[in-house]
Amino acid sequence: MTENSSSDPGSSSTSTTGKKKSRTTTRRRHNPEGQMPLKAHLTELRNRIIKAGLALVAGTIVGFILYQPTFTMITEPVSRLDTAEHPAEVVFSSVAQPFDIMLQVALFTGVVISSPIWLYQLWAFIMPGLKKNEKIYTLGFLAAAIPLFIGGVVLGWVALPQALSFFTSLTPEGTAHRIQATVYIPFVLRLLLVFGVALVLPVILVGLNMAGVISGKQILKQWRISVIVIAVVAAMAAPGSDVITMFFMGLPLTILFFVALVICLVNDKRRVKRQTKKQRQLDEEIQRGARPLGEL
C-alpha cells in the first residue's frame, strides 16, 4: 500500500511538463492564426516598447561616450566650406546650448546603434502569429531592414555636403557663414534619420502584406498614387527642402517601393497556392468520408 501511494518526484515533474505542453498544443490548435484579443495586443505593445526603450537607453549612453568624435564628424562638412572669402563655422549662442546639442547627438547615436533591436521589436509586434516554418521571415526582415536603415543614414550623409554646397554658393561675397549649432545639428540629425526611416518603409510594407493587412494587387492598383505620395513625402520630410535632398530620398524610395511590390505579388501567389492545397486536402478528406474514432 505504501509503495503504491508514494509518488516519484521525477514522474511528477514529467507529468507537469506534459500538462504544460498539452495546454500549449491545445491553445495552438484552437488559435492556429496567432490571433490575440485587444488587451493582449496592448500588453505585447508595452513589452516591445520597453525592450526597444532599454536598447535605446544603452545606445544613448554609448552616444555620450562617442559624442566628441561624432560632433566632429557632423560639423566636418561645414569645415570644408571654410575659405578665406567665406569663413564658415558652427557657433553656440548661449551657455546651455552645448549640453542640449550633446543630448541630441547622443540620442541620435543611440537610435542608430540600437536599430537592430528596435527594428526587431517592431517586426515582432507586426507579425506575432508567424508559424515555426515562417520564422525565417524574421531573419529576412532584419537582413533587409538593418542594412537599409544604416544605408539610408549613409545616403543622407552623402546628400548633406551637396545640399550645403548648393545653399552656401548663394552667399554674397564679403560675408561669413556662422551657423547656429541649434539650427545646424538638428538639421543634420533630422536629415539622416528621415533618410534611414524612409528606406525601411518598403520593408514594413512587405511585412503588412505577409500579415494579410494589404495585398499586392491593392498596392499595384494604387502605384501611381504611391509614387506621387513618395514625391510629396520626399519634399516634405527632407529637411533641406531642396531638389537635391528630394532626389536623393525620392529615387531610392521609389525603387524600393517597386521591389516591395514585386515581393508582395509573389507572396500573394504563394498564399493562394497554400490555400488551394489546403482546400484540396480538405475536399479529399470529405470525399473519403468520416474516419473511425481510432484513426483520429
Automatic annotation (TrEMBL):
It is found in: Cell membrane; Membrane. The keyword Glycosyltransferase does not apply. One of its GO terms (molecular function) is proton motive force dependent protein transmembrane transporter activity. InterPro entries: TatC. Residues 1-38 are annotated as: Disordered. Keywords: Cell membrane, Membrane, Protein transport, Translocation, Transmembrane, Transmembrane helix, Transport. It is a multi-pass membrane protein. Residues 1-17 have a biased composition (Low complexity). The chain crosses the membrane at residues 49-67, 101-124, 136-160, 187-211, 223-240, 246-267. The Tat system comprises two distinct complexes: a TatABC complex, containing multiple copies of TatA, TatB and TatC subunits, and a separate TatA complex, containing only TatA subunits. Substrates initially bind to the TatABC complex, which probably triggers association of the separate TatA complex to form the active translocon. Part of the twin-arginine translocation (Tat) system that transports large folded proteins containing a characteristic twin-arginine motif in their signal peptide across membranes. Together with TatB, TatC is part of a receptor directly interacting with Tat signal peptides. This is Sec-independent protein translocase protein TatC.
